[in-house]
Amino acid sequence: MQVLDACPLCRAALKPGNLRCPDCGNDLTAYSDLRELARRYLELAHEHVSRGEAAPARLLVERIPQVTPDARADLAVLRARIAILEGDFDRARAELPNCPASSATAISQEVQAAEQDRFQARELYNQALSAARDGAYHPAAQRLELAAGYDPDDPAIWALKLKVDLKCACYGRCYDDLAHLDRLAARPAEFHGLESLLPPV
Length: 201
Description:
elongated; mainly alpha
């Protein structure tokens, strides 16, 4: 994000740290405060993205343009990485032309890696589904464990994993599956209150 290098009223050149315009006398404190707020918002958004928390990062990204117009490149990087977290790889690629070249290269690589992970997860999910339909629940559970590692935010994986773990009587894993479904706000209606039917572990 750029520093305030010109007075917003008279466009006179400013030196770093100026809190009053040397030409028109305009008080620049409010502008400085807004830029500090925008800087803090950007830091918080990057922290949320690094923890995989797309929703709070997106809320901050929506607020930053209301505070400063000088964060376009930073916002493009954040929007691309939020899109990757949300599994929208086309939206992530659409942001690449607005990103600095070094960031665009890294983000492009992240998109490719995320797409490969999703492909691996779907392959394993399909194998597990076939195995479960044949009654091979333990092999299905093993494949779903791997699938969840590749794509932990796919509710279909966790829903099938829960059903398979119930068949295998792996109740500790069932509690874990339910926790992940709740994290994604995707618990199937038929499993509401399931904890009351499971043995303690």
